[in-house]
Automatic annotation (TrEMBL):
<dbReference type="InterPro" id="IPR015376">
    <property type="entry name" value="Znr_NADH_PPase"/>
</dbReference>
<dbReference type="Pfam" id="PF00293">
    <property type="entry name" value="NUDIX"/>
</dbReference>
<dbReference type="Pfam" id="PF09297">
    <property type="entry name" value="Zn_ribbon_NUD"/>
</dbReference>
<dbReference type="InterPro" id="IPR020084">
    <property type="entry name" value="NUDIX_hydrolase_CS"/>
</dbReference>
<dbReference type="GO" id="GO:0046872">
    <property type="term" value="F:metal ion binding"/>
</dbReference>
<keyword id="KW-0460">Magnesium</keyword>
<dbReference type="InterPro" id="IPR015797">
    <property type="entry name" value="NUDIX_hydrolase-like_dom_sf"/>
</dbReference>
<protein>
    <recommendedName>
        <fullName>NAD(+) diphosphatase</fullName>
        <ecNumber>3.6.1.22</ecNumber>
    </recommendedName>
</protein>
<dbReference type="InterPro" id="IPR015375">
    <property type="entry name" value="NADH_PPase-like_N"/>
</dbReference>
<keyword id="KW-0520">NAD</keyword>
<dbReference type="InterPro" id="IPR049734">
    <property type="entry name" value="NudC-like_C"/>
</dbReference>
<keyword id="KW-0479">Metal-binding</keyword>
<feature type="domain" description="Nudix hydrolase">
    <location>
        <begin position="168"/>
        <end position="298"/>
    </location>
</feature>
<dbReference type="InterPro" id="IPR000086">
    <property type="entry name" value="NUDIX_hydrolase_dom"/>
</dbReference>
<dbReference type="Pfam" id="PF09296">
    <property type="entry name" value="NUDIX-like"/>
</dbReference>
<keyword id="KW-0378">Hydrolase</keyword>
<dbReference type="GO" id="GO:0016787">
    <property type="term" value="F:hydrolase activity"/>
</dbReference>
């Protein structure tokens, strides 16, 4: 029942084909040569957004330029990697996206275009957005409070006062589709979600906890359902601002529902037929398109969900 092969398409944001080439990050001479190479491509990231444009044949592409056309900002230059053709990629973090003479390009966020860009471009964007989020929120040394400086082409922040090196943070979160003995799926509606929006349960892993423990704790806290077997399926970077979603299938041993009312407003067991009918009537809205939540539900459902949104 588990495994991403249940549907043919790769999970968004998880395939890129770019070699991150981390061994070059602290080699200033190599980075300078890579930056000025004529085939190098650069894009600007600002507040989680990039510029995209639609091609004549209807594809969505990241707007990238040679480095000599890029706005200068040596301080906030992130080296992202090298593709199989040897093209090097950099992202520039700026306070605003650059203006363009044409009006073909438009700003867009990862939730909107993460599933529309090519896997290579989506991978570059998720890397850049994750780095930007971390850089914005970790400007001061957590050991001594001094302002830190960027190093390693965007992948380290170094403290000039105490010498500490700080690395990009990723927060593990579990997301799980729980089924019962009748192979029904447990879906919940968070308190701030609109009426009809149901999805898998999810939550952050706590300190000193295994991810399997986190799955069982979160399901019990949010829905009152006791979970036994837990099986890992796949992961997805989710830099909003810094999560790594760890996807599971889980089996309930005590299916009685008692929602917590704080995070989850309502939770229900759905058979496939229940869910199909609820989608058709509009009583339940399908989950957002690119998230692993949608994929976990699809794996159980056995076929693509009826409608796939692209935003959020
Ligand atoms: Zn320090």
């Amino acid at each position: 029942m588990t495994g991403l092969d249940a549907t043919s398409k790769p999970l968004a944001l998880t395939t890129t084909g770019v070699d991150r080439a981390a061994h070059h990050r602290q080699d200033e001479a190599w980075l300078a040569a890579a930056w000025s190479h004529p085939t190098t491509r650069v894009f600007v990231v600002s507040g989680g957004q990039v510029l995209v444009e639609e091609t004549a044949d209807g594809r969505t592409e990241l707007v990238m330029t040679p480095s000599f056309d890029a706005p200068e900002t040596e301080q906030h230059r992130y080296f992202l990697g090298i593709d199989p053709d040897g093209v090097r990629y950099f992202a520039l973090q700026k306070d605003t996206l650059p203006g363009r003479m044409d009006d073909v390009a438009r700003p867009a966020g990862l939730r909107e275009v993460g599933g529309l860009l090519s896997p290579l471009e989506a991978g570059l964007m998720v890397h850049a957005v994750a780095l930007e989020n971390w850089q914005r929120m970790h400007r001061f040394c957590s050991r001594c409070g001094e302002r830190t400086v960027i190093a390693a082409a965007g992948h380290i922040r170094r403290c000039p006062a105490c010498g500490a090196e700080h690395y990009p943070r990723t927060d593990p979160a579990v997301i799980m589709l729980v089924t019962d003995d009748e192979d029904r799926a447990l879906l919940g509606r968070q308190v701030h979600w609109p009426e009809g929006r149901f999805s898998t349960l999810a939550g952050f892993v706590e300190p000193g906890e295994s991810i399997e423990q986190a799955v069982r704790r979160e399901v019990f806290e949010e829905a009152g359902v006791v979970v036994g077997d837990v099986e890992y399926v796949a992961s997805q970077p989710w830099p909003f601002p810094s999560s790594l979603m760890l996807g599971f299938m889980a089996r309930a041993t005590k299916p009685d529902i008692h929602v917590d009312g704080e995070e989850i407003h309502e939770a229900r067991w759905f058979s496939r037929e229940d869910l199909r009918a609820a989608f058709e009537s509009g009583e339940v809205l399908p989950p957002y398109g690119i998230s692993i939540a949608a994929r976990l539900i699809e794996i159980w459902y056995g076929k693509p969900l009826p409608r796939q949104g692209t935003s959020r």
